[in-house]
Write a structure and sequence with these properties.
This protein is an all-alpha fold. The protein has a single domain, classed as MetI-like fold (Orthogonal Bundle), CATH 1.10.3720.10. The protein contains 10 helices and no strands. Helix 4 crosses helix 5. It is elongated.
Length: 249
């Protein structure tokens, strides 16, 4: 029992690595996850629009992208992008592995976000689009001002869950050999464990991940309840939606 407690809950080991986890690991983990989500939203939004396009030649490349990146293990994608691109001579971010880490995790997220947004857009009644077009709004204007806000409300929990996944996937960037100052939570803990042969640092890193993901989950649930009745939509969007509902009726 003492050996178990020493291996996983050594207070001295935890105290030794805690400052690095807090000041360096937590900051870089959140930074990589946040930037990856921003990239994922940008690429995923474009893919979602292509996935619902009528021409098959517009849907095909988006479908291939989504299927490939959802089918590949995340560790393979991170390795191919973070390690493969520099070796192939594509030094997109110089010698800094952080840019490659964000790119890899962001492109993974884009595939899942594309499907989330696609399902959200298609969950909005078709009459909303038809009514918007009948009022003289263009396809893109109706999509951006009427459909997208309603779709976003519908998929908010799924998007937040994807951010949680992004936080956890950021642990895979240790494969890229981050330097001091760039290390995320897992990399710091893994280095400490490799030095001391004690897993307490990994346990502490796990507690950091839990401290990020659990409050975020409850926050998303709270937001979903507040937005569920539609009364929290921006005034312009809400009024437009009301007009369209009346027109569709």
């Amino acid at each position: 029992m003492n050996d178990f407690l020493h291996s996983f809950f050594d207070v001295h080991e935890m105290a030794q690595v805690f400052p690095s986890l807090l000041t360096e690991g937590l900051t870089n983990t959140l930074l990589i996850a946040a930037l990856a989500i921003v990239l994922g939203l940008a690429v995923g939004g474009l893919l979602a629009v292509l996935l619902i396009a009528r021409p098959w030649w517009a849907r095909l490349p988006a479908r291939v992208y989504v299927d490939v990146f959802r089918g590949l293990p995340a560790v393979v994608t991170v390795s191919l992008i973070g390690l493969g691109l520099p070796v192939a001579g594509l030094h997109l971010f110089g010698t800094s592995p952080v840019g490659y880490a964000v790119l890899a995790v962001g492109l993974i997220n884009a595939a899942y976000i594309a499907e989330i947004l696609r399902s959200g857009i298609q969950s909005v009644p078709v009459g909303q689009m038809e009514a918007g077009r009948s009022l003289g709004m263009s396809y893109l204007s109706t999509l951006a001002l009427v459909i997208a806000p309603q779709a976003l409300r519908n998929v908010l929990p799924a998007l937040a869950n994807q951010f949680i996944v992004s936080v956890k996937e950021s642990a895979l960037v240790y494969l890229l050999g981050l330097s001091v100052g760039q290390r995320e939570l897992y990399f710091i803990a893994q280095q400490q464990q490799a030095t001391s042969y004690n897993s307490s640092a990994l346990v502490l890193a796990g507690l950091f991940y839990v401290a990020i993901t659990i409050p975020l989950t409850y926050l998303v649930n709270w937001l979903h309840r507040r937005l569920g009745d539609g009364r929290r939509l921006p005034a312009q969007v809400a009024s437009t939606a009301d007009v369209l509902e009346g027109t569709a009726a």
